[in-house]
Amino acid sequence: MTRSQRQAIRELIAEMTALGCRREEVVAQLRHDFRMRPREAYRLAAGLTLDQSAAAVTEATGGSQAPEGSGIAKVEKWPGPSSRRPSLSLLGALAQVYGCEVADLVDVADLREMPAADRRVVHAGAASPTAGREAPQAASAPPATSAPPGVRGTTGDSGPALVRQAAEEAAAWAGWAEASNVGPVAVEQLLADTRARAEEYLVQDPAAVFLRTRALRDRVFGLLQGHQSPAQARDLYRCAGYLCALLAWMSSDLGHPREGETQARTGWLCAELADQPDLRAWVASTQSAIALWDGRLRDAIQHATRGSQYATNGTVATFLACQEADAWSLLGAAGETRQALERAADAQERARGADPVGGLFRCGEFRHANYRASALLRTGDAAGARDTAQAALDTYSTLSYGTTAQTRITLASAHLACRDTEAVRSALNPVLALPPDQRLAPLVERMRDLGRDLAARGGAGAAGVQLRTSIADWCADSAPRRLPLSL
Q1: Could you give the CA distance from residue 122 to residue 106 in angstroms, rounded to a whole number?
Q2: How far is residue 131 from each of residues 91, 153, 156, 157, 367, measured CA to CA in Å?
Q3: C-alpha to C-alpha distances, 62 to 51, 67, 226, 400, nearest whole angstrom
Q4: Contact 363, 304 (CB under 8 A)
Q5: DSSP sequence for 254-310
Q6: What gap in Å lies between CA 297 and CA 429, rounded to an integer?
Q7: Are 383 and 418 in contact (CB under 8 A)?
Q8: Count of other CB atoms within 10 angstroms of residue 221
Q9: Is the CB of residue 318 less than 8 Å from the CB of residue 363?
Q10: Which runs of consecutive H residues, i.e. helices, occur in 333-364?
Q11: Could you tell me which of 150, 241, 318, 469 has the fewest CB atoms within 10 Å of its CB?
C-alpha cells in the first residue's frame, strides 16, 4: 500500500466518522474503494495498526493467542498469496477486538477455502443474537477475556431475556466445542499415510520419500493449529511424532545428523503431548541411531536405555537392545555387547502385537540378525558374524535395500577377517550394484571402513586393488552428495 493510499484511507474514515456513518458502512466503503479483505477493513475502521491489533488480541486472550503484526497481516490477506488461514480462535479474538461478529470477518472467498467444520462454526456464531458491542477506539482497552464464537459478554439484559441469552450462548459454545477441522476418517487416513511413508522409505528413492514425508508432516502441523477434540488432537500429535521421527532418521541417512536431531526433539515433544509410550520408544531409538552414526557412542547407549523404559508392544524393545549392542561393540566392550544381544533375543521372543507404524519402525528377524552379525564381528567373532549374516540372507526375505546392504557388508567384512578374500567380492557385488540414490550415509561409512580393512590386509593382489577402487568410486557417488540435486 502506497503512502497516498494510506492517506486516502485515513481521510475517508475521518470523513465518514464525522458524517455519523456506522462502522459497517465504513467497512463496506473501504472494501469497495480499496478492494480490501474484510479483516483489514475492520481493523482500519477500528483505528488500529497491525501491531496494535496483535497487542490487543494478546491482551484480550490473556496470552493464549499472541500473534505478531506480521502474522495479522498474513491472515488479513488469506486466501491470497503469501497468506495464512486464520484459526477460528484467532477470528474470535479479532471479532472481540474489532467489536463485530466472526461472520463479519470472512467473505465468500474465505468460506470457499475453509474446512466444512469451520464454516459450520462461523454460521452458528452468525445465527446467534448480537450483543450490540461497539467497536473500540485505537486507544481503548480490549475485553479482558476471549471466548469461542457465539459466546458473548454481559449485555445488560435481565430476567427471562438474560436466561435465554445464557442458554443460547451455551448452545453456541457446544456447537463450537463439537466442531473439528478433522474427522475420524481423516485421522485414520493420516495414520495410514504415515505407515505408507515408513514402508516406502525401505524401497524407494530416499530424497523423494523425504519430500512426501515432510509434506505430510506439514499437513498434520497445520491441522493441529486448528480446533479438534482432545482425543483427535492426541491422534494428530501421535501422527506428527512418527513423521518427525521418520524425517529425523532420513535426515541422518542423507548425511545431516544435526538436522535429524532437531526433528527428533520435535518428535519427542509430540510423543509427550500425545502421551504415547511406543512413540517415545521409537523416537528414542531414532535418537540413538543418529548419535551412533555421528560418533557419539555413549549418547547412543543413553538414548537406547531411555527408550527401553517406554517399550511396550511390538519389536521396539528388540531394536533398542540391538542399538545398545551396536554402540557397545564399537566401544570394544565385549561383555556389555553380549548382554545387550541376549536382551535383544529375549525381547524378540516376547514381542507381541503389531508395531504401530511398521516399515522403518519395525525390527523383524532379518534386521535383528543384521545387528547381531555386526556386533559379533566387532567383538572378534568373525565366524559367528559370517554364519549369522549368511543365514539371514538365506532364510529371510526383506524389501529393505538398506538392511540387506548392511548385512552383505558385514558378511564381506567377516569373509575378509576369515581370510576368504574370494568370497568378499561375491558378498559385495549386490551392494556395488545399488543405484547412487540408495547409497545412504551409513552404508557409505561401512563401505569406507571395509576399503580401509582391505588396504590394511594387503589388498589381496590385483583383485583387491580393483575392489578398493570400486568401493571408492561407489562412495564418491552417493545419496548425500546427490541430495542438493534431488531437492
Answers
A1: 9
A2: 17, 8, 10, 10, 65
A3: 17, 12, 19, 51
A4: no
A5: TT-HHHHHHHHHHHHHHHHHHT-HHHHHHHHHHHHHHHHHTT-HHHHHHHHHHHHTT
A6: 30
A7: yes
A8: 15
A9: yes
A10: 334-350
A11: 469
Q: Is the peptide bond before 79 cis (omega within 30 degrees of 0)?
A: yes
Among the listed residues 330, 274, 260, the one whose alpha carbon sits nearest the alpha carbon of residue 297? 330
> pLDDT tens-digit profile of 245-278?
999 999 999 999 999 999 999 999 999 999 999 9
Please report how many Cα atoms fall inside a 13 Å half-sphere around the Cα of residue 46, on the Cβ side. Answer: 29
More confident residue, 2 or 355: 355
d(CA 93, CA 174): 18
Match 593382489 to its residue by C-alpha cell. Answer: 461
Measure the CA–CA gap between 157 and 155, rounded to whole angstroms: 6
Q: What span, in angstroms and rounded, lies between the C-alpha atoms of 327 and 390?
A: 22
The DSSP line for 371-405 is HHHHHHHHTT-HHHHHHHHHHHHHH-----HHHHH
Amino acid at 258: R
Residue with cell string 493449529: 225
349-371 pLDDT, tens per residue? 988 878 999 999 999 999 999 99
Amino acid at 199: E
